[in-house]
Specification:
mainly alpha, two-stranded antiparallel ribbon, ABC transporter involved in vitamin B12 uptake, BtuC, transmembrane helix, cell membrane, about 75% helix, 2 strands, 11 helices, transport, ABC_transp_permease, amino-acid transport
Length: about 290
């Protein structure tokens, strides 16, 4: 029994770390632009399909190391171009946040149908990053979970370093805290919006690569990730990166134990129940602030 609970705990910790990586990206975009990206889940699927094409289709040399080297710049370029072509033209219009929600919803439907046409409706599977397990007697931990946890946490730490120690990171923080003040001091808001969109695409796409080996890649699989990322963002506090990190690990653990005790069909019910209970007590979320 103890070994089973340890396995569930490790699964929750691993999934929570990847959810944190992805939810922070969604929180970043909302914190800077106050617009919600409905295509976020489709960007997750894009990361998974890129990994599948590189590994199963091309058979790229170097395994997952080469996958990350190739896929991450492609994801960043895709996010940047998408923001410039689709989101940026709407920014000068009234109620542009609502229009962004609508157009990214359309983009998500387009991308999902493209995946189905290009790759078929059958789910794709990927090999693990590493094989083998760490045998600790009664406790057995797969090396795959350890690597996913390390890579996810490394990605989060790298993101925090960029925010705190680079010019673009400080510009992002300034625009998120005071958009008008950032404009007055000469910070190019359009570049910041494009950069945050590109960074968030990399983060959710990287999550797609990491989870593709544990779960299947499917044309509509991104909607589940979109829902979970939204729940984490709202639970942690809209626009609060620190709150999103806490919420991701909490809900990752909740998902693992609810799935173990009651079955996976009860996971989303439990997530929304916890979200609604939290918002009833703290409408601004765990770490959010009143606007």
């Amino acid at each position: 029994m103890l070994m089973e609970y340890v396995d569930v705990f490790i699964s929750g910790l691993t999934n929570g770390s990847v959810y944190a990586l992805m939810a922070v990206g969604l929180t970043l975009v909302y914190g800077v632009s106050k617009a919600f990206n409905f295509a976020y889940g489709s960007f997750y699927s894009l990361g998974g399909y890129l990994a599948w094409v590189l590994l199963a289709g091309i058979g790229i040399w170097g395994g997952y190391i080469s996958v990350f080297i190739v896929a991450l710049p492609l994801l960043m370029a895709f996010g940047y171009v998408t923001e410039k072509l689709i989101v940026a033209p709407l920014r000068s219009r009234s109620d542009w946040e609502i229009k962004v929600m609508m157009i990214t919803l359309g983009l998500a439907l387009f991308m999902d149908n493209f995946y189905q046409v290009a790759f078929g409706s059958r789910m794709k599977s990927l090999p693990p990053i590493v094989d083998g397990v760490w045998d600790l007697g009664d406790i057995v931990i797969s090396y795959q979970d350890i690597v996913i946890l390390v890579l996810s946490v490394s990605g989060i730490l790298a993101f925090r370093w960029i925010l705190n120690n680079t010019r673009i990171g400080m510009a992002v923080r300034a625009v998120a805290q005071n958009p008008e003040g950032a404009r007055i001091v000469g910070i190019p808001k359009d570049r910041v919006f494009a950069a945050t969109f590109a960074i968030s695409t990399v983060m959710v796409g990287a999550g797609g690569v990491l989870l593709a080996q544990k779960y299947f890649v499917s044309p509509t699989g991104g909607w589940d990730i979109l829902v979970k990322s939204w729940v984490i963002t709202a639970f942690g506090g809209m626009g609060s990166i620190q709150g999103g990190l806490y919420a991701a690990f909490i809900l990752g653990m909740l998902e693992a134990f609810v799935g173990y005790w009651f079955g996976m069909t009860w996971v989303l019910f439990a997530l929304f129940a916890v979200l609604l209970a939290t918002l009833a007590v703290r409408p601004q979320g765990l770490m959010g602030k009143w606007g």
